[in-house]
Specification:
The structure holds 2 protein chains of 2 kinds.
Chain A (H helix, E strand, L loop, with lengths): L2 E4 L2 E4 L6 H7 L17 E6 L12 H5 L2 E3 L9 E4 L7 E13 L2 E6 L10 E5 L5 E5 L9 E6 L5 H9 L5 E8 L13 E6 L3 H13 L6 E9 L6 H10 L3 E9 L11 E3 L2 H8 L7 E7 H13 L7 E6 L4
Parallel strand pairs in A: 1-5, 12-13, 12-16, 13-14, 14-15, 16-17
Antiparallel strand pairs in A: 1-2, 3-4, 3-5, 6-7, 6-11, 7-10, 8-9, 8-11
Chain B lengths: L2 H5 L2 H16 L5 H4 L4 H15 L8 H9 L5 H17 L4 H18 L3
The chains are: A alpha/beta, B mainly alpha.
Chain lengths: 324, 117
């Protein structure tokens, strides 16, 4: 007789019964759909016990690592403890090493490394018990620090506080790493296309550096978009990277032309970033695409790339969502 | 043997959904129903749908189909457009006329539930 535990409820399993069926007949509402292991709406997390492979078939590696499984496909062979809550990483302290206003509206923060990470993943900064801000990591572990690019928002809670108070020596409460927007060693033969808007450049900058560190030889194309030229940052650093790595190309696309211009950057275009990407790059099922920026940009560009032939599994995206 | 098995089972569904999803996203009659911000979740739903439509293993009940589509207020045009794209997808996969007819038959069997009639 196998037992299933869900939070504080203990259920005796029937023979050949799935976890989903057992929970539903016990009056516990679990989201579900196809009951065939395809729609993935019945995902639960295993806290204790063994999950057989069929119950994790088709799940992304990140989900499997978090012990997520398909409850409609799981017929337990032994006692199981399961939950519907997402796993939670601990909050740890990290010392601020330096802060730098690298652009009119961008504060670069470098922190002592609080946990292992891959460039392009993001972390949460906990302002207090209940409020957090998420930032993508723009550095590699080899750099010796976690680098964040904070877009300064007028009246923004974290922005205002950071400008006035944040300095080296301070400690921040951070949690992470999160996200699948990072380089994979298996990608070394894939052409990379990275497209970011505004501070969406931060994780892409980290991913580009990581890919070069790992000896990526296939083409790497980095596109930075902004409403106007003044919003671009890190151009010098990117051009230096391009000088050292012949397979790296950087492009800048500004929506609007302004009257006063700083010196024109190489590969600077004016116009619509979607049209630019469509005519500049040929996408194949093998192209690995990274997208970062506001949600509507990420979704629109993801859909466009998919419709132009990219494989959905090869599109990694992080949408930046506004916080109150 | 079902169309699902004849085409190659789960692997064939993976290839089919890639073709089908792109087609419906580009079809203005129905694209808005499929234009989910969560594309991975939409693809998972399409896999489940195509598995069923090709006669593969599924546990959908008529009630499941009805409640799932009720709020969308679908009409004949929407339904026919989806069946059209299903047929076009099957043609690209090299299915026979008989296969396409079989899938159309399965679609017809759930029509009333999907249209909430």
């Amino acid at each position: 007789m196998t037992t299933l535990q869900f939070h504080d409820q203990r259920i005796d399993m029937h023979k050949d019964e799935s976890v989903l069926d057992a929970l539903l007949r016990s009056g516990i509402p679990i989201a579900h759909g196809c009951r065939a292991g395809v729609c993935q709406s019945c995902l639960l997390r295993c806290i204790d016990g063994e999950i057989a492979p069929p119950a994790q078939a088709g799940l992304a590696a990140t989900l499997r690592q978090q012990d997520a499984f398909l409850s409609c496909r799981c017929i337990p062979t032994g006692d199981l403890v399961v939950s519907d809550s997402a796993p939670s990483l601990p909050r740890v302290k990290s010392r601020v090493l330096e802060t730098d206003r690298i652009a009119p509206r961008i504060l670069r923060i470098r922190l002592a490394i609080p946990f292992d990470f891959r460039p392009g993943q993001y972390l949460n900064i906990w302002l207090d018990e209940y409020n957090l801000r998420s930032y993508s990591i723009a550095s590699c572990v080899d750099d010796g620090y976690v680098e964040l690019h904070v877009g300064l928002i007028e009246g923004g809670r974290f922005s205002e506080w950071a400008i006035q108070h944040l300095a080296s020596g301070h400690s921040l409460n951070v949690q992470g790493p999160f996200g699948t927007c990072h380089y994979d060693a298996e990608s070394e033969d894939q052409p990379l296309l990275l497209i970011g808007m505004g501070t969406g450049l931060a994780p892409l900058y980290g991913i580009v550096k990581e890919s070069l560190l790992r000896g990526h030889r296939s083409p790497i194309d980095l596109v930075t978009g902004a409403r106007n030229f003044e919003q671009f940052y890190l151009q010098d650093e990117l051009l230096q990277l391009c000088d050292r790595a012949p397979n790296l190309q950087a492009y800048w696309v500004a929506q609007h032309q302004c009257n006063q211009q700083a010196q024109p950057a190489t590969n600077l275009e004016y116009g619509d970033i979607y049209q630019f990407v469509a005519r500049q790059f040929v996408l194949t099922r093998n192209t690995r695409i990274y997208l970062c920026g506001a949600e509507s940009f990420v979704h629109k560009m993801k859909k466009q790339c998919y419709l132009h032939g990219a494989a959905l599994q090869n599109i990694r995206a992080d949408a930046f969502l506004p916080c109150s | 043997m079902s169309v699902y098995e004849r085409l190659g089972g789960a692997e064939a569904i993976d290839a089919a959904v890639d073709i089908f999803y792109r087609k419906v996203l580009l079809d203005d009659r129905i694209s808005h129903f499929f234009d989910d911000i969560d594309m991975e979740r939409q693809i998972a739903k399409q896999k489940a749908f195509l598995t069923m439509a090709f006669g593969g293993p599924n546990h959908y009940s008529g009630r499941d189909m009805r409640t799932a589509h009720q709020h969308m207020q679908l009409n004949e045009i929407h339904f026919d457009a989806v069946v059209e794209q299903l047929a076009a997808t099957l043609q690209e996969l090299g299915a026979t006329e008989a296969d396409i007819g079989e899938v159309a038959g399965i679609a017809a069997s759930v029509k009333d539930d999907v249209l909430n009639r």
